[in-house]
Amino acid sequence: MRILGIETSCDETAAAVVEDGVRILSNVIASAKDAFLWSGGVIPEEAARKQVECILPVIAQAFSEAHITHEDLDAIAVTKGPGLLGSLIVGTTTARMIGAIWQKPLIGIHHHLGHLSSTWLLNPTSQAPCHSPKFPILTLTVSGGHTELWLRTAHTSGKLLGRTRDDAAGEAFDKGACLLGLPYPGGPAIAKAAESGNPNAFAFPHPLHSDDTIDFSFSGLKTSLKYLLRDLQKNTSILNSQFSIPDVAASYQHAICRHLCDRTMRALTQFPNIKEIHLVGGVSANTELRSMMEKSINGERETSQRASLPTRQVTVRWPTAIEYCTDNAAMIAAAAEFLVAERGWPTARSATDPSLPLTDMVENG
Ligand code: KG4
Ligand code: ZN
């Protein structure tokens, strides 16, 4: 199928055309992030006003880059939640309008089902052969609003193993950047500052270290950062040193990634049949997280070999380009393809819902 995806759950206005859930014919994103650089986050009304202005031009550009017209479409997929209410309304109302006029079926998609599908998207600029992911998969969804670990047996079946008890991983980056005086979004800003820093310069706590669940917690790390900066500020000679901010950023980033990897490895040991680990959502763009997760898997394999225990091959995957990690419309079109393949065409009109639970689309299984 050829599906037009529309995504407007936060500050971005995105449209994409995807074939068979994997081939990207176009992927257009107009982001309002520059408008929020120094505000520490998105201002919802401001985001929705910008989305009203650019939604139709963005859709037109998606058609033009895909070299198709609306007649070549099989369906329209749109994010129906969760997200900012005003922003979601811009996307869903536009989708309903063009769906009715062009007489195309409409598929409402949960934003996180989109992220879960993002690892299937092929990179149109890469020649590397890509093997399709194999279930069962352990998926770590790490975005600005959510941190969840899913055990998935199919695109739309799985179990939620754990979630954050307070802040999301992306929120920890965003709030940490704010404390460090770095711009929004905080993840890329901290990652950049950390490039020249020492990740072992400052010690951060291990959240939920002796807790038996697979839950996450980031608010303690943020508080530790706050107190570390307060203590450093008392000693101005340390804070004025040009290496100080990169060292703090690298140590903080290291602590966030270590927590994400520790909890994922704990889940992996409980489910020996897992074939792949997927990292999705904005924070999956983080290179420290990717390399730490791969090292953790290799470490587990070496430990099993040394103990003469059976070793297993677990593939770690993340989206094939940065623009498929952060919010985009290609993942929404991909999710719609897989949803229809596993559950059939939607029979009821879907409602826009800013706090839609993922269990609306992923069955226990
Ligand atoms: O998935 P996403 O684009 O939007 C949501 O659904 O929330 O994720 C945005 C989050 C932000 O918190 C941003 O700081 C974080 O992803 N992020 C990163 C990186 N790029 C984006 N965090 C760490 N490292 C990055 N390179
Ligand atoms: Zn997202």
Summarize this structure as a short list of keywords or feature phrases.
365 residues; alpha/beta; Nucleotidyltransferase, domain 5; 6-stranded mixed β-sheet; 5-stranded mixed β-sheet; 11 strands; 18% strand; binds 5'-O-[(R)-(carboxyoxy)(hydroxy)phosphoryl]adenosine; binds zinc ion
Could you explain the architecture of this structure?
With 365 residues, this protein is an alpha/beta fold. The chain folds into 2 domains: 2-126 and 321-364, ATPase, nucleotide binding domain (Nucleotidyltransferase, domain 5), CATH 3.30.420.40; 137-317, ATPase, nucleotide binding domain (Nucleotidyltransferase, domain 5, 2-Layer Sandwich). The chain contains 11 helices and 11 strands. The chain has helices spanning 44-66, 85-102, 111-117, 169-180, 186-194, 219-234, 236-240, 244-270, 287-306, 322-325, 330-343; strands at 2-7, 12-19, 23-31, 75-81, 106-110, 137-142, 147-154, 157-163, 276-280, 315-317, 363-364. The chain has a 6-stranded mixed sheet with strand order 10-9-6-7-8-11, sandwiched between helices. It has a 5-stranded mixed sheet with strand order 3-2-1-4-5, with helices on both faces. Helix 5 (186-194) packs across helix 8. The two termini are 26 Å apart. The model has no long low-confidence stretch (mean pLDDT 91). Residues 10, 143-145, 170, 173-174, 185-188, 191, 281-283, 285-286, 326-327 line the site of 5'-O-[(R)-(carboxyoxy)(hydroxy)phosphoryl]adenosine.
